[in-house]
Amino acid sequence: MVIALIISMIILVLMGMVPRALPIIAAATGELVDQNAGTLNLGVEGMMLLGTVVGFFTDFYTKSLLLAFLVAGIAGLLLSLLHAVAAISLKADQVVSGTAIWFIGWGLSGVIYRALFGNYLIPPTLSALPHLQLPILTSIPIVGPIIFGEDPVAYFILIMVVIVHYFLFHTQTGLNLRTVGEDPRTAEEMGVNPKRYRYGATMFGGFMAGIGGAYLTIAVTGTFYYDLTAGLGFIAVALIYFGKWKPFRSLLGCLIFGAVYVIFLVIQTYFQSIPYQFFAMWPYLAIVAILAGVAAKSGGPAALAKPYEKGE
Amino acid sequence: MAETARVLALVGFVFLAVFISSLLFSLFGISPLIGLASLFQLGFGSRGGLAATVGGMVPLLIMAIGLSVPFTARIWNIGGQGQFVIGSIMATWVGLELAKSAPAAIVIPAAMLASFFGGAVWLIPPILMRIYRGINEVITTLMMNFVAVFLLDWLITGPMEGRQAFALNEPSSAPIPSSLMLPTLVRGTNIGVGLVFALLIAFGMFFVLKYTRLGYELRLIGDSVEAAKYAGIPIERNLLLASLISGGIAGVAGMVQIYGATGILLPQVFSDITTSYGYLGIPVALIASLNPIAIILSAFFFSGILTGAYGMELAYDIPIDVVTAVYGMVMFLAPLGFYIKFTKRKLHF
């Protein structure tokens, strides 16, 4: 009896953790490329928020999943472009610029939603994403639905992690990009244009953050509410530190985060006498604790958040 | 002369930022220029609007002063919101516990001390992590905001729950006795002693940052940590002290808001930017280039935008979130005003 309960809980957690983790995986994977090129964009949260609303309304009106994610990604990209201009070309303080990006995305998401949908008592919702139903594979007990039964966007995000890993560590362009993040002057002497790489990386980060945000509304909640991300963008950045700027380690961090998130949701239903707030606050405390355990400069790009000036 | 040009450029870019944000009004069928005009009209143009703006600038001003201290050393305390919440919890708790046994002249200073202490303590773990392990304080201070908000939520639905919580459909604490409320100075407005507190804090911190060794050393650290280290300045001690002052003042902002305005602990909805002074304070401090006297003006300006946006929501059903976009846009574009003078230098802010 107890064993059956435990097994069913484990299955519940395994099923629930992937969708919970995916928005963070998308955002972290994008921002990781950005940081490997030496730019710190703390506006991930804002770009995700913009993605939540843009993805939501595009899906709501066009019913096209592809278009929804594409437009959300482009919205995140455009917002990140602001950061790129400030941080890379104008050499502004990246913390300030990133915070500004966060505010802009936060404000825009609320305004756009109200402009399009007004004040609904019952917010409009989207129909659930189609899940893959591969014959045989999805019918494998437990493992089948988890690995083979996700929605198509989930696979896109996961494949992006692999692509980013391959790109960063197995291609010349990826090596160049990391050199830009470590030592932009050497990169320039090698004939690499640091600014161009940083622009590209920042825009990729914005695109992925937008996708992550859209995944949150379209696949996880099915509806939009204000400040939906509730810190997920910052958590994504924290998990990059945990992952030591490597895609697979960050992915692992995101999955663990998603798993523990779901575990607490499950435990919460068994201990209803404990106020829910103590369950709700744990993810944030956990991130602080995780960061406390990660040594600071462990493998971080040396030129992170330092603007590059030619011939300096 | 160059200084005048710089200020003019800054003001110009601030207005440009507000104008770009006002393009959002067209989403609601209002032309940006007319929307902008009514935003300023509602915020600054009438006696009522102006009074609301001056009254409403108190928490913004105190918060921005608190944030400016570590910002000077380029330590980014984004956790002002959490420190504000903890400060308001401590102040309310002291008020409710002590009111029966002690006069207001003792309770109010005690509440202020408690809120200072609470806010400062809330910032200690992230700042120690920053100083001794180099961990990005932006993320950790932000995470602590969420923890504080959930703590508050639990307190007002549990141990500190008010029995007859007004006609509000929301949970809240019991109100502090009205004898503890800070008196208003102008009849019929919310301009009160809180504003005096805020101004005192501003002038006090102006003195500290400008004329004391702490202020001098913080500026050196802000310019270059390496150079400061080379000059033998105790980095850790200065950063810790600056952060404790920062968290403490943010906590006091929470106390003044309870004792000067609300009188009651209300739930902090995280998505409600209009009461999230810890976030709103960031651009207020930055636009004033962290100068406490300039922050008084900047708090007045931003408070006016907030008042105007409230009015716009009532008049045209334009969501208050416009404010967040405006603040972000100002934060984003205002540095260009500084850039005009410092073209040879870093866009340092």
Describe the structure concisely:
The complex is a heterodimer of chains A (312) and B (349). In chain A, 72% of the residues lie in helices and 0% in strands. Chain A is mostly helical and 312 residues long.
Spatial separation of the terminal alpha carbons of chain A? 69 Å
Topology of chain A as a string of helices (H) and strands (E)? HHHHHHHHHHHHH
Q: Any idea what the shape of chain A is?
A: globular
Question: What is the share of helical residues of chain B?
Answer: over 70%
Largest Cβ-defined interface = A-B, 55 and 56 residues
Radius of gyration of chain B: 20 Å
Description:
The complex is a heterodimer of chains A (312) and B (349). By secondary structure, chain A is an all-alpha fold. Chain A is built from 13 helices and no strands. Chain A has one domain: ABC transporter involved in vitamin B12 uptake, BtuC. The model of chain A has no long low-confidence stretch (mean pLDDT 83). By secondary structure, chain B is an all-alpha fold. Chain B has one domain: ABC transporter involved in vitamin B12 uptake, BtuC. In chain B, helix 2 packs across helix 3. Chain B is globular and about 50 Å long. Chains A and B meet through helix 4, helix 10, helix 12 and helix 13 of A and helix 5, helix 6, helix 11 and helix 13 of B.
